[in-house]
Specification:
The complex is a heterodimer.
Chain A lengths: L2 H14 L1 H36 L6 E6 L28 H10 L3 E13 L1 H6 L15 H13 L10 H5 L2 H9 L15 H11 L6 H14 L3 H7 L5 H14 L12 E7 L2 H5 L4 E4 L4 H5 L4 E4 L1 H7 L9 E4 L2 E9 L5 E2 L4 E2 L3 E5 L1 H4 L15 E5 L5 H15 L5 E5 H44 L1 H9 L4 H37 L9 H28 L2 H6 L2
Parallel strand pairs in A: 3-10, 5-7
Antiparallel strand pairs in A: 1-11, 1-12, 2-3, 2-11, 4-7, 5-10, 6-7, 8-9
Helix pairs in contact in A: 1-19, 2-17, 2-19, 2-20, 3-8, 5-9, 9-10, 17-20, 19-20
Chain B lengths: L1 E11 L4 E12 L4 E5 L6 H8 L7 E6 L2 E2 L5 H11 E4 L11 H12 L3 H14 L15 H13 L5 E5 L7 H16 L3 E6 L10 E6 L2 E7 L3
Parallel strand pairs in B: 3-8, 3-9, 6-7, 7-8
Antiparallel strand pairs in B: 1-2, 1-4, 4-5, 9-10
Helix pairs in contact in B: 3-4, 3-5, 4-5, 5-6
The chains are: A alpha+beta, B alpha/beta.
Chain lengths: 556, 226
């Protein structure tokens, strides 16, 4: 018999029990789709695991302060108590961070980075006075903080350098921002290589006391006058009514909007307060303009770096760099636009492409919404050189911080721990999925097994007639094998066609891998499932082959 | 020519053994129209199955045109069935998934006859049984007599030497049964050897030879002059 005729005949047989055949095909399709998608997902996972772990996010160690942010005693060093009482501000600063970096092995970068939300100032004004839109809480009149931070950092002995040249050497946006900043007098860069230990000691001494805005203003002018040390003159000044000054300043901040700011097309966007090493740790650079630096922070410059997508949203014409925007009652100068990246900020769970990065609030004095993670406490972050040895670094860091700051309740964690935990969960889900797939396939195969057996039982007489008309035993075997093959194949094709969708569903439901579908793995999974279902068709076909012809003819 | 010698067939039912055929000797020559009669359980159907190589004897020899069939493979026996024997059953045994034409074509497809040739052959067969108008119909749309005529056409598809008919009129009203028997008579006149099994003694009047069986033995073998 010709194969074409055989296939035609088999089609006719399948058509005879159409509903049963379709159900079996669908069952096989489900099994095949599950098997293919699961195989592809596992393959993608194995393939991309190292790549994922290579993500800078998984080189990070977080140090967060635990406990009540309003309880200053619990929140001693190293984390600033951001409770409105700013006497602890800057007790822990970049110098301390640098100390940690040097003292704990395996760390490569140290920085602060905290998620926040920016609201356009015009939106805030629409919301009315005293109302805090969406949980926004401007904690401080920003300029006041900026003043304080700026002066605070300048307290360290700084050698004047490029005193006249720095400002003119700066690029235009940065110069504008510097002018905007509360502290615009001193363009001296703080030397990073300075003795941070002594700087720290000075800072501790200097900030036992909190200052009023008045005092700070006085400090500023004194600093201006002398160009050297602000603190001698500061002590001599008498504070006036600080509250009046503060209110006046608040009012000014909320109502005045410089004429040259760009109007924003959106009301809010996500942001990160960061110190410059954040960029290094995440290995991101700008495509336009530049990143902000330690100097920018020390000057309290109100500068902002935009993620690539956010820049497009805010400045569709591409003129982001150098523009000024008003958010959170302050005016920021856009310093640069980041290159597109695939990094997701683990705190805000937003792509860095959609985020604005500004100097950390501890330094910039940017009003900081309490909606952020950490309840107003900065998160110290460290990046390790080698993600493989991150556990040792975590332990060493814990030990170091415990020794240096014994009264502080801290939690040290690595993002990779979360990954590992996720991975463990994932492996359980995958195991379940494999069982589910196997069960699905088994059910499909058993269904086909049953259907074929029943069909053969029903067709016993026909088998006898086929024998009488010249079918060999092997013809009978082939006939039913072909039925199995055709049903399995139809199921496999449908299942394979559906598997990319299932794969994408797994991608979105489980740990995210790349969205690329691994065709060879899909085919492998589908092929295995196909073979599996075929095996279940072999037994019924052999049963048919063994049927005694005379007995079959006598049957009804 | 068929020569059976010492054919025995026993069915083992576990609790008992039934001797369906006891030491049967039978010679059938070309052109005969044999009716094998006997009550049910006499072994006539078993004998027909063995004649048509649908069943195997426990012992004895089967020579078809002097060839010993007992040594042949399933494939060779199947080919002999396809080409030398045409079967007609009591309950027609048409394939319900195939239409009239496809049913008749079945043995031709099995033999690998080219498409055009088998279509032509099928049409002429269906015309000869008066069903040329019914080619596209399915078996369940036909009367019993029509179905049996389709079955006869199918049995003749490969132009066999022998027609083996097992109670061909058993499921038919007498008028349609007579029609079918008439076709068998005509075939015999054209030289086809017809072997018909029946429990109906009146049918034994037909044909050239009557064989009567009882309890697995041939008790009477009567040749009639044509």
């Amino acid at each position: 018999m010709k194969i074409r005729d055989r296939i035609w005949m088999t089609f006719r047989h399948l058509r005879m029990s159409l509903v049963g055949s379709i159900l079996v095909i669908l069952a096989i399709a489900i099994g095949v789709a599950l098997a293919a998608a699961t195989t592809a997902y596992i393959a993608a996972y194995n393939d991309q695991r190292d790549e994922i772990l290579d993500n800078p996010v998984y080189r990070e160690i977080y140090v967060e302060a635990l406990g009540d942010p309003d309880s200053a005693t619990e929140l001693a060093l190293p984390v600033v108590a951001a409770t409105g009482d700013w006497k602890f501000a800057n007790q822990f600063n970049l110098a301390d961070l640098s100390m940690v970096l040097q003292s704990v092995g395996g760390l490569k970068y140290a920085y602060m980075a905290d998620a926040t939300q920016f609201f356009s100032t015009s939106y805030l004004m629409q919301m009315g006075d005293g109302e805090n839109p969406k949980g926004f809480e401007g904690r401080r009149p920003a300029a006041a903080i900026a003043d304080k931070e700026g002066v605070g950092l300048k307290k360290a002995p700084i050698e004047p350098e490029n005193e006249s040249g720095t400002e003119t050497a700066m690029d235009e946006p940065r110069a504008a921002a510097a002018k905007e900043a509360a502290v615009d007098k001193d363009a001296d860069a703080a030397d990073k290589s300075k003795d941070y230990a002594s700087q720290k000691a000075d800072l501790k001494d200097g900030y036992e006391k909190s200052y009023t805005d008045e005092e700070i203003a006085a400090m500023k002018s004194a600093y201006k006058d002398t160009g050297k040390d602000a603190y001698a003159s500061k002590d001599a000044k008498d504070a006036k009514d600080a509250k009046d000054a503060k209110d006046a300043k608040d009012a000014a901040d909320w109502s005045t909007e410089p004429a040259d700011v760009t109007e924003l097309p959106i009301d809010e966007f996500s942001g990160i307060f960061a110190t410059p090493d954040f960029f290094l740790a995440y290995d991101i650079e700008t495509v336009q303009g530049s990143l902000f630096t330690v100097e920018d922070m020390e000057k309290g410059s109100q500068v902002m770096v935009l993620g690539s997508d956010l820049a497009k949203t805010l400045f569709p014409k591409g003129n982001a760099v150098g523009s000024r925007i008003a958010v959170n009652t302050q005016t920021f100068t856009i310093l640069g636009v980041l290159e597109p990246t695939e990094i997701i900020d683990p705190q805000s769970n937003q792509s860095l492409d959609n985020i604005a990065v500004v100097p950390h609030f501890l330094f910039s004095g940017v009003a900081y919404g309490k909606m952020s993670r950490g309840k107003g406490l900065p998160t110290l972050r460290f990046a390790v050189e080698d993600s493989g040895s991150i556990q040792e670094s975590v332990s060493a860091l814990e030990e170091y911080l415990h020794q240096e700051y014994p009264t502080t309740n801290l939690r040290v964690s690595a993002a990779v721990d979360q990954f590992k935990a996720d991975e463990e969960k994932l492996s359980r889900v995958l195991t379940a999925l494999i069982f589910l797939t196997a069960a699905g396939l088994l059910i499909a195969a058993i269904n086909m097994f049953n259907l074929l057996l029943i069909r053969i039982l029903k067709q016993t007489k026909n088998i006898g007639v086929m024998r009488a008309l010249g079918h060999t035993r092997n013809n009978i075997l082939n006939h039913f094998l072909l039925e199995t093959l055709m049903m399995s194949f139809a199921g496999a094709v449908i299942g394979l066609a559906a598997s990319p969708f299932l794969f994408r569903f797994l991608q979105s439901a489980l740990m995210k891998m790349g969205t690329e579908v691994y065709t060879p793995a899909l085919l492998l999974g589908a092929g295995l499932a196909f073979l599996f279902s075929l095996i279940f068709g072999i037994y019924p076909a052999f049963t048919a082959r063994q049927i005694d012809t005379a007995t079959a003819l006598r049957s009804e | 020519m068929i020569e059976l010698k010492g054919i025995t067939k026993t069915y083992d039912l576990g609790h008992m053994q039934i001797e369906a055929l006891k030491n049967i000797d039978l010679e059938i020559t070309r052109g005969e129209f044999i009716t094998i009669m006997g009550p049910s359980g006499s072994g006539k159907s078993t004998l027909l199955h063995i004649l048509g190589i649908l069943d195997e004897a426990d012992s004895g020899s089967y020579l078809l045109e002097k060839n010993d069939l007992t040594t042949l493979s399933d494939k060779e026996l199947s080919r002999i069935r396809n080409q030398n024997f045409g079967f007609i059953f009591q309950s027609f045994n048409l394939f319900n998934e195939f239409n009239v034409m496809e049913n008749v074509m079945f043995p031709l497809i099995q033999a690998g006859v080219p498409r055009a040739e088998r279509k032509e052959r099928t049409m002429s067969l269906l015309t000869s049984v008066g069903l040329e108008q019914r080619v596209g119909h399915f078996p369940n749309m036909l009367s019993g007599g029509e179905q049996q005529r389709v079955a006869i056409a199918r049995a003749l598809a490969m132009d066999p030497t022998f027609i083996l008919a097992d109670e061909p009129t058993g499921n038919l009203p007498s008028e349609q049964g007579t029609e079918v028997l008439g076709i068998l008579d005509d075939l015999n006149k054209k030289g086809v050897t017809v072997i018909m099994v029946t429990h109906d003694d009146t049918l034994g009047e037909r044909g050239t030879r009557a064989v009567r069986m009882r309890d697995g033995e041939i008790v009477k073998d009567f040749r009639r002059d044509a």
